[in-house]
Amino acid sequence: MALQAVDNLLQKARKASDEDIEKLCNNILETFDVPEKSAECTNLLRQLFFILQSSEHPTGISKKLLANLITSVGSMSEKNTKHCLLCQRIVKEVMPLEAEDVSELLQPEAGSSGTKNLIPLYIAQGKRFGCIKPVLSSAIRWLSSQSYDFESQRQGFVFLVAVSILHSSSLNTDYIQTTSEQISQWLLNASVQQAPNPYTINPFRKDQTNVVNEVDGTPSQNFFTLLNIGQYYTEDQLMNIYSFSMLYKWLYHCHQHQTSTDDQIPVYSKVFGNLSSKTVDYCFRVLDQCERKVKVGSDSDLQTACLYEAVCILDLICTIDGGHIPRVHQEIKRLYSRIYQDTTYFPVIIQILQFFLNHSGAVVHDPQETYNNVFTDILMNSYGDQGLMFDLICFIRKNLETLCYKTSVLSTFFPNIFKILAWHPRTFLGEFIDILPALMTPSTSLEIFHTLLDLPCMTAALEVKEKSPDSLSNTSVSTSTNTPTTSIDAYQMALYRPLFIFITRIEGGHGDTINRLKSLHSVLDDLKKSARVLVTSQTVPVLLRVWFEEILENGGQEFAIQLLPVLLERSDLLYPITEFVKDVKRIISENLVKIMKKYKSIITSQYGEISDFLISTSNIVNRENFYTNLVWCVGEFCSVQHSELCTADLIAKYYGLLEAVTYETSGILVASNNSSDITPKTLSCLISALAKLATRCQDLIPRAILCLTKVAKQHIDNTEDPEGGEILVTRCQELINILKLPNFASMILNPSQEIETGRWHRDNTCLPIILRSTHRYLVTDG
């Protein structure tokens, strides 16, 4: 009911006409400055904001109302905060449409007390109308002078950080230096005394100020940080907290701006002054505080968040100023040794890994131990945690090039990484499309191909492991040889446990696949309708296309030769999910042709593998497209044009092979009474390939004509499939007629490669176009 009510309100707001909005604006103007009608005015403003936000088309308001709204924002105080924030949101909504009016009304006035309240509008407006620079001067003045109140300093600092993010070119070196100096003071010079209770006044008791506490409840004996606990905070303590919270953004964007505009290195010494060293001291203090045991349970989340931010900032500081790397590296190593086994700190561990990746080279430190911990133990035990896996996937994508070229992480641990996709197929498919090419190397690509085809099995195996009792996961298993009734029963049996271990392995390089895949498919049969398994099966075709694209671009002929027997085997060895099998077979069949087209000599060099596959007509069953595509490739590319190693003997061997298969296939079609898995399409492809081969070795032409004649006679009276029989007879007769003219047959069935690369069908002077044009004129004249 609530959702329906909201939907009705949205529909009503979207249907509001310009007249309705104008009437609403007039009502707001009538009540805007009337104290007695403030509640009514606020309700009208809410309606206007809702309509503006819901509208599918930009809608404007009158200039008079716009001026009142901006004036109201500038006069914001504690008494009218809600009203003014609502006005601010409305101005932001109409700002793109009313840009010129807003810029006219928003021009900063020197010394105006309302400037600080208008800062969000200045930021939203940008520097198009010249408002940023005047406000920058005011913001710097608020920061550098102690005469301004806390709110002015806070707003000024927020404005400067926002400008560094959105309009960094507006910041000059002086602005950055002044702000950085002020941040340094806020970080290390905040009071350690708690603020007095502002809600109680006792004239008979002498004021007592208490020192802020550490997270474990003990009084603080060091400088103040955001992890110090107090009942009430002073203004300088709040600025300390704000400074640390926005420090990373300030450092990062200012550094990016300076490095893009200043060729002088190092930039940090000129711009940030002593902020980098003071930031390191502050972060070290935070690291020490995070070692304390919290007194209040909820503070542990605060510790983790602060720890993560501190490591991020230290990583950035070391990027800005490499002189800090040695001492920071020691602290980060100490931190890692303390938390590496605790998955609650996983985001921090990932950030530590990022630090090691960025800076270990400067101190000759090998972070392999950290890689092993993250990509084996943590990933193996936490792949089901979507939040943790999101952090890990983001880390991999961010550092894809470094991990690919400078470490062996991706090529070693890719089976474990694929568990993330196997368990969260909907969530991370897009990320794996980007990651997959980086996982592929000459030594891992075949294993990854098998892993992709077996991805639904991996999902099913992981589900089995999740459902199995913990007591059965790591202890002895049954030695029974009985046929298991469920996948969980199979997991508990010694005969099948190795299959589960292999399909959920952690590292690659232990063999591309196993020779008992059919057994694995059979024991996992009860999970093929599982929702997660079905979704995983839908991701495989997408990733297979990416895999083949990478192979076609970078694979090379040697790899294609290794791939061929794998394609021959795996094209019919798939987890039996109907749509999955259909899609995968189609993709493999299509890419078989692409690979053969690119590496045509494979037909010549791999005669043994190809002939063993083609000679058995049972291979046509359930993979007719794959079989016919391979036959087409033989007929098309078994030629001296494509390989100097192609001899008349090899052509004769292929011809003899295809001739035998043609007779067998034709006989099966005639005797099948329309119930065979073999269709006329296969036979048509076979006879076409025979004719092509015969044109390349003219001694074979009489045999080819005889074979085609026999096939035509077999199907001329085909009553079971008259349409298919007619097509075959017509095709045979066409090929016979062509082969009876050997010289022309060679040109038609075995044309020069220039037919694809030349100008035969595009050049206006070419013979086919002239003949067609002449024929057209003659027919018209007649």
UniProtKB/TrEMBL annotation:
Classification via SUPFAM superfamilies: ARM repeat
Domain AP-5 complex subunit zeta-1 N-terminal TPR: residue ranges: 1-263
CC per GO annotation: AP-5 adaptor complex
InterPro entries: AP5Z1, AP5Z1_ARM, ARM-type_fold, TPR_AP5Z1_C, TPR_AP5Z1_N
Record-annotated AP-5 complex subunit zeta-1 C-terminal TPR domain positions: 431-776
Pfam families listed in its UniProt record: SPG48, TPR_AP5Z1, TPR_AP5Z1_C
Domain AP-5 complex subunit zeta-1 ARM repeats: 302-419
PANTHER family listed in its UniProt record: AP-5 COMPLEX SUBUNIT ZETA-1
Name this polypeptide is given: AP-5 complex subunit zeta-1
Organism, as annotated: Patella caerulea
